[in-house]
Amino acid sequence: MLLALLSAAGSASTRAAGTEWLSYRDAYRAMIVFEKYGRPKNYLQNQIQLVPARKGVLPDTIQLSLQLKGSSVRLPLDAIGRAVFPVLKAAFDENAPLLIDGGAGPVSFRARISIVPRTDGVYDSAELRAACAQALDYQRYTGASARGSACVGVRFVYPAEGAAPQLRVRGNGQPALLPVALGAAFPGDEHGAYRVVNYRFAEHAGAAQLLAAGAPLAIAPLIE
């Protein structure tokens, strides 16, 4: 039932995006699943993410706003096109439109799960494993696609431009710098190119901490 719900919400939003708006009710039905999820999720966050219908990246000029009767609420987008989704009874009752300005073609949405970043940049290995496990449990809850999969690590996502990411693994010896590659922010995503650093649990079994010198755009669970 949840799979059907999420699929219907995504397809409906794609049709609406052709006229540069999304249905609040469609988005609500997709996003509220996480709010009602009763298992541990303290390491996770759930955001609405705009996704271009064609392969590529969202333009920097794109804006998202919720248009209520008599008022407008701007929903700031981060560098990956994500925003905090407002759960508002009035917006649901009105089926208020989510307006998209500054776009370049049809845009759909998805509910995007990621790991909450730490402000101090210090990540305990045990907490990263627990966060990835929570993400896997949630994916299994929302559908059968994650059954038989396992948490293998996490991905730190950074802009393609700017200072090079500096992530070091601290264990028993000198902190080791992890390699940086180009890739999608989230595994399986065809949109966007970022600098990514993958921290795989099997490769750092004895590690105690991961040290991130700069704040990432996102931290994605690696579920394979």
Question: Would you write up a description of this structure?
Answer:
Helix content is 24%, strand content 33%. With 224 residues, the protein is of the alpha+beta class. The chain has a 4-stranded antiparallel beta sheet. Strands 8-14-10-11 form a 4-stranded antiparallel beta sheet. Helix 1 packs antiparallel against helix 2 (24-36). It starts with a helix and ends with a strand. Mean pLDDT is 86; it is low at 1-19. This is DUF2987 domain-containing protein. It comes from Massilia aquatica.
Structural class call reads alpha+beta
State the helicity in percent bands: 10-25%
Determine the mean pLDDT.
Answer: 86
Characterize the overall form. globular
Low-confidence stretches: 1-19
Give me the secondary-structure topology.
Elements: H1 2-17, E1 21-23, H2 24-36, E2 44-52, E3 63-68, E4 71-74, E5 82-83, H3 89-94, E6 97-101, E7 107-115, E8 122-124, H4 125-142, E9 151-158, E10 167-170, E11 176-177, E12 181-183, E13 194-200, E14 209-212, E15 218-223
Antiparallel strand pairs: 1-6, 2-5, 2-7, 3-4, 3-6, 8-14, 9-13, 9-15, 10-11, 10-14, 12-13
Helix pairs in contact: 1-2
